Amino acid sequence: MSDALGDLEAGAGRIRLPSTRRRGRPSSLLVLAAAIPTILILLPIIYVVLRSWNAGWYAIAAELARPRTALLFWNTTVLTVSVTVLSAIIGFAGAWLTERCDLPGRAIWRVALSLPLAMPAFVASFAWKSMGSEFQGLTGAVLILTLESFPLIYLPVAAALRSMDPAMEEVSRSLGRSPRYTFLAVVVPRALPALGGGALLVAAHMLSEFGALALLRVQTLTTAIFQQYELQFDNATAAVLSALLMLLCLPVVLAEIRLRHGHRVSKVGRNTARQRALVPLGRYAFPAILGLVALTILSLGIPFGRLGYWLLVGLSAGRGLDTLGPALGGSISLAIAGTLVTTIVALPLVLLALKSGGIFARIADRLPYVVHGLPGLVVALALVYFAIRLFPPLYQTAWVLFAAYAILFLPLAQSAIRASAELVPRELEEVARTLGRGPLKAFASVTLPALAPGLGAALALVALELMRELTATLILAPTGVSTLATEVWSHTNDGAYAAAAPFAALLVLISGVPVYLFTRRTLIPRRG
Amino acid sequence: MYDVTRRRFIQLSGAGGLALLPGMIRPARAAGGRIALYNGQHRPPVEALVAAFTKATGIEVAIRHGNSAQLASQIVEEGANSPADVFWSEESPSLVATARKGLLAPLLPETLKQVGAEWSAKDGSWIGATARCRVIVYNKSMIEEAALPASVLDFAAESWKGKVAFAPNSGAFQQQIMAIAILKGRDTALAWLKGLRDFGETYNSDSAAVEAVEGGDLPIALSNNYYWYALAREIGAADMNSAIYNIGHGDPGTLVTVSGAGVLKSAKNVEAAQSFVAFMVSAEGQQAIVDAIAEYPLRPGIVSPFPLTPFDKLDPAPVTPDQLGDAEEALTLLREAGLA
After folding, report:
1. Which of A55, A111, A344, B303 sits in a 20 to 30 Å window from A156, CA-based?
2. Which residue range(s) make up the domain with A169?
């Protein structure tokens, strides 16, 4: 996931020296700081292993041998692969049209293609399923989730297409290669890391998605884990399913590592601001616009239309409006503070992995991605388990919730920070040290400012996820604290859709803020 | 241009976040005039009762909303350190499970006297506040009431293929499984579940099942009565395409279940917690609850404003909450049938 975001950041890194990958000994302070996220990440893993262990080998084997487990595994895989592939196709096509073709109104289309990022999947699913049963089931889920997921691929690919040096393509064309050949042999391979990074993000989302799938009546490993906790107090089955889910994350993580290695090559010559000729669409312009209009209606128009419909028609409209303020306050304060904690905790992990090539540093750096596919529920219950046993005074304070946020969303922050951190030559900090600065001061005055773009992207991306986070918030938030997401959940639970609509609409609106901050780098052309 | 904005964004959010932090790190412990309520019941009745209670006593109530079974497991996990004072559950099995772990304190005898003994725990660890009923919701334009079968057991047959919506996750559905197992035997209950698995349609919740029937996706849903009333409140009763059918004659298709509450042994504010539960079954409290949700009051003499089938005309399955217990057997059956 990392360098997909990196492409958004790269242009903003101002110091650009060739990075010599020299490994030094990281300071013990850094190792200590990196231990915090590592311990946090280990908590849910230990919890899942502990609970599975309690079930015993026989129960684990019996659970794995059930036909239902095979069905859940199959559904999860089909959903994840289909949504990822479809999102990749739509995202790439959209990026190609808005960045490389003479499409009329490209600036508007860029916004339209980025905005679905602000639409939580459960809001969109609710809108669709309330229109008819044909949208339920695996096929419907694939289509609906694709419509809200493709911006995760569109954004990095658009950034990559924009920052590619046109010289390569010109050389290919001047050597007599056809436009099609040039596209396949020059453009696609160099957009692939960005595409892959976004695709991996989509895949991880699909593995842990609950709300939307529950509404659309699709059973996956994650919905089954929720069902287990809803049905019973003994969670052995849920633990076994969670372990299975973590195993499913492994190929995703491995693919991500492979892509990162392939990506280094394409780092040369980014940030070229040279004008390129746009591909004339000709007679394809009309179908292209038609397609984009359809995409916008499906991904934005229908969910918003449905919210408006309930607001006008539903008789529970206006119920509980007095909680709108506290819920908005809860969403914003939890999201901002949680974002800061997550980003700060992620920072040493990234720096350590860059400074030290050691096996432990690399494992610590990768571990969060394995946990990223776990549903918030499992992480929350693990924290309840450990907080009550080890730190009772912290239980039901916001700190435990922040820890859950950090565990769930570390990879997003890591990826964004790493993209900037990789561009900072280590020599700079060493120069500062030789000039007499202490390690902390050298870091604060030299490295930290250079990391600003990555930190900014990390903050925006994590804030977006935190605002819609539901299950960990429900279980861990201090008693009496509500957020927009928890209010939407409780009102729709009571069938009060009109009462839920203003909360959902507000949630989408404030999600627009981080989306805007995150995407403006892509959307607004850089000034020379 | 955007560099400046970004830096400012980081600075602003940093400053804002840090300013907000101290306000949120206070644990919501009950102290003085404040109790913590773990609530698994639907929100409208709970919020109505809490408002009336605070107005009458001045005691503030911090509410943690959630799913009853999840809150029960959270309370069990919390053990003696639980910040909760009162647990209000949508279903009795969650209360039974919490009581079996020895986490509930006995309620005041004065409180227990307010409702019939059959609706509360024998040992007085929890009390039933309202009752609801398992019903059949059917779409009037898709099926005639006369065509509905005499027993809920009949739905598990091929002739009803694709026509019956049910929610295996629902706590009330699990109690229905228990009732069938108690009245007709375990094998019948298992066969019924297997039939529903093969011929029925699973939904994530009763409310989703009722909406599907109202929307014309399929003609029949097994549900609690109030989900239909909640939808009728949203759409307008006159515009509803669906209606409620009570099977009656002691069939497990008409099962009365209760929602109730208990005080935790570990409560920090026992007196206030006991007074909350007492208020719940007082005339004022019961009226506040049943005005907000289409459930039956368990205190005699209270009238629901909803056009409910009269309680004494239900002729429900002869099973008490005490017999239903913690409904653990229902999960085993669901798993054996491959529904969980």
Report:
1. A344
2. 66-262+282-301
